[in-house]
Specification:
This protein is mainly α and 57 residues long. 63% of the residues lie in helices and 0% in strands. The chain is elongated. The chain has one helix at residues 2-37. The protein contains 1 helix and no strands. The longest helix is centred in the middle third of the chain and has 36 residues, at 2-37.
Length: 57
């Protein structure tokens, strides 16, 4: 009985893990395709340099 439950729970965990990985892969493809459309591939907002504002005196 315990062994059967462990097998069923393990199967569910593996299936959910596989579905999760496929979901991440699909969203990554959507994101990359969107970035290609906007010519932003390789340019992330965190790498854009902005000049600092002048000091307040």
């Amino acid at each position: 009985m315990v062994e059967t439950l462990a097998v069923k729970l393990g199967t569910v965990a593996l299936v959910l893990g596989g579905v999760h990985l496929v979901n991440v892969w699909v969203f990554n493809r959507f994101r990359r395709r969107r970035m290609d459309e906007r010519n932003l591939r390789g340019k992330r907002p965190s790498t854009i340099q902005v000049e600092p504002a002048p000091p307040l005196t």
